[in-house]
Amino acid sequence: MEAAFSKVMVVKIGSSTVTRPDGSVDCDYLANLARQVACVRAQGWAVVIVSSGAIACGLSRLGIERRPTDLPSLQAAASVGQPLFSAAYDEAFAAEGIATSLVLLTRRDTADRTSYLHARDTLRRLIDFQVVPIVNENDTVSVEQIKFGDNDTLGALVACLLGADLCVVLSDVEGFYDANPATHPDARLVPRIERIDAEVLAAAGDAGSSKGTGGMVTKLRAARALAVAGIPLVICSGAAADPIVSVARGDRIGTLFPAAHLPHEITPRKLWIALGDSSKGSVVVDEGAKRALIERGSSLLCVGVACVEGRFSHGDVVDIKDRSGYLFARGHVAFDSDEVELAIGRTREELAGNRLLKALAVKELVHRDELVVFE
Ligand SMILES: Nc1ncnc2c1ncn2[C@@H]1O[C@H](COP(=O)(O)OP(=O)(O)O)[C@@H](O)[C@H]1O
Ligand SMILES: N[C@@H](CCC(=O)OP(=O)(O)O)C(=O)O
């Protein structure tokens, strides 16, 4: 089949944007969305949509006004809402002559590299078939501890998976503000963020509505992974006039997070490490280790560890933070947390001189090939 598209855009749409205040599917919004997608497709963009809203829609259909807090109720609501959503998407896009498909993913799928690559191949083939895939988390079977929970991470993951050219997050705010606008009425929109540092992260708050789940925190985490992946991200209001068409045209709306120009190459496998699985704990490192990872692209050794948080096992993904709690890297660990704790406070020589602890001195805790640095 002849390639119909030259670029790929992933559009993430939040629950508040795509549902009415009562939680039902906003069919007028979907009709407008389909028209915009048809417009950018005609300009060569393949579009993949990551849409939230199944839970809100299911609760509305079940007549449940207050969002439950227990997982089975939310999962049951998603099971009711997802087919309603899929049907509404299909109808809206069919009016533009566009076929849609449903792709439901869980962390379990994306944490496993083989399943992750299969998801990529399927999405690519759907694009070849000129279908607009509608992606969501498979909430009905997701297990709490390993849920994406928010679709911002899932959107970034899909964009990285496809090596997208652009990711757009349609939210219920105009973009990223220098403080949470829900609690700071004088907060100002920031049109462009070159680097997501600790100060920027500190300005991000939780979701402002009862429907949204991630707020700005998860959007910024997604933005960091996208930046290292070389994929620009725009966060803008889903209620703006034709936001997808505007962003595709290069209009300055919302907040742009441009792609980072890193000195080191980031492989697809590293992007999978950044986003595929949830972290099982954290490793807090000293300044020397932080510099070695960022400036020299070194592996992380146990001697650089100040403390560990949570319990993790060999092969798990962990967050890597500095002493102030600033998360700057992620990677697969080669030791269990109990083993790492044995190394804390000991010099490399002490470890090397101890028959039982020697491995902690010589083997990397996180090998550079298993490490993704967000700086
Ligand atoms: N610094 C910030 N800038 C903008 N919005 C913020 C910020 N901090 C927290 N928020 C909140 O994040 C919300 C958007 O995230 P969320 O509720 O998850 O919506 P969505 O469903 O669009 O993903 C905003 O409505 C706002 O209340
Ligand atoms: N997977 C969930 C979406 C999770 C969620 O609420 O995300 P968001 O509205 O983007 O903050 C659903 O479809 O209801």
Automatic annotation (TrEMBL):
Belongs to the glutamate 5-kinase family. Keywords: Amino-acid biosynthesis, ATP-binding, Cytoplasm, Kinase, Nucleotide-binding, Proline biosynthesis, Transferase. Its EC number is 2.7.2.11. This is Glutamate 5-kinase. Substrate binds at S52, D139, N151. Pathway: Amino-acid biosynthesis; L-proline biosynthesis; L-glutamate 5-semialdehyde from L-glutamate: step 1/2. Signal peptide: none annotated. GO terms for molecular function: ATP binding; glutamate 5-kinase activity; RNA binding.
